[in-house]
Amino acid sequence: MTDQPQREDDSTERIDEKPHATQPDGAPTEDGEATLAPKAPHEPLENNVHNVALVIEGGAMRASYVSGLVNVLLEQGIYFDYVCGISAGATVATNYVSRDMTRTKRSFVDFAANPQMGGVKSFLHKHGFFNADYDYLGCIEDGSMSFDWEAFQANPARVCIQAFQRDTGRTVVWERDHMQTLEQLMACVRASSTMPGIMKPIEVDGQIMLDGSLGEGAGLPNHIAEDNGIERLFVITSRPAGYRKYELSAVKRRAVIRMMKDYPYARNALLTRPKRYNEELAHLAELEKEGRALVVRPQEMPVTRTTRDVKELEHAYLLGHEQGIAELPRWRKFLFGE
Question: In the Cβ-directed half-sphere of 196, how many Cα atoms lie within 13 Å?
């Protein structure tokens, strides 16, 4: 990892590399879904989308909708060789790289029914509203939410996950060198997702980490791919078209200042996030106008970041999946020139 110049209130660590899209090799069936015959774990997986980054925004349980969109990519055999995500988008990204459609859905739909996943009781017992100790590694260890580590390793795709160092204000982008074991991977994903006040922080490389959305991009990870020289982006957001963040109210500003009184970098990141996020949206719109980005925005968002009702999450997932099927021609034209 190398340091990059600071943008407004953070600095960034990352590595550069330039990864052209070819026709997908997964043949669709009559119902429109690709046949995804599992490959032996030791066999390298192949990707067919090159020089285009798959960029996935976070949003906690709003990722139920995003997962529906992403599973359309997997069903159609559309495999990117560059994938980046922030917060819940990091979980979706790693599920995508492991090509596990079942886990992609379960992570933000069925898993919500697991009482160990979190909730008010978990929060009151100081495990966080989302029980991070369980949600990333614990659920894998007890078998309730397995992760296909062998498939993840077999996929040569470049994977980038962003987090924020609480005590330095530095944005950190982790790649494969920080994902040598399943435990390391889940630590990166958890760190990227650690929403202040809602989840217990985790220490990585001697630093207390917080949600990657506090850092550069303010939650939109397209800058990661751009900084790595990727000129075309396929971006999946968790907010509908026209969404903008409002400046924090006086009450919320006081709450942030009180909660982060001992952590000035994190405090500043939270206070400035609305402005920075909206600026990143404007930049993304410019990339669209230039033809460099295809942005997939939810047509609606029926859930919030803390929704735990499985039926509501299932509904959001199905809406995302339906949208993905409907938008496939647009996606294919951008990726493959069809």
Answer: 26
pTM of the prediction? 0.86
Q: Which residues pair with 165 in a beta bridge?
A: 209
Give the number of C-alpha atoms closer than 13 A to the C-alpha of residue 212, restricted to the C-beta side: 36
Residue 90 is which amino acid? A
Cα separation of 194 and 136, whole Å? Answer: 11
Burial 208-241 (b: 16+ CB within 10 A, else e): bbbbbbbbbbbbbbbbbbbbbebebbbbbbbbee
pLDDT tens-digit series, residues 75-134: 999 999 999 999 999 999 999 999 999 999 999 998 888 877 555 454 444 544 557 778
Supply 47's token pair: 């990707």
Helix (H) or strand (E) holding 84: strand 82-86
What percent of the chain has pLDDT above 90? Answer: 73
Report which secondary-structure segment, H or E, holds 227: helix 222-227
SS3 247: coil
CA distance 52 to 92: 18
User: Side chain identity at 138, as an amino acid letter?
Assistant: G
Query: 150-153: long-range contacts (C-beta < 8 A, 24 or more apart)?
Result: 150/41, 150/42, 151/39, 151/41, 151/45, 151/98, 151/99, 151/100, 152/94, 152/97, 152/98, 152/185, 153/41
In 166-272, which ranges are E strands? 170-174, 202-204, 207-210, 232-236
CB distance 3 to 169 below 8 Å:
no
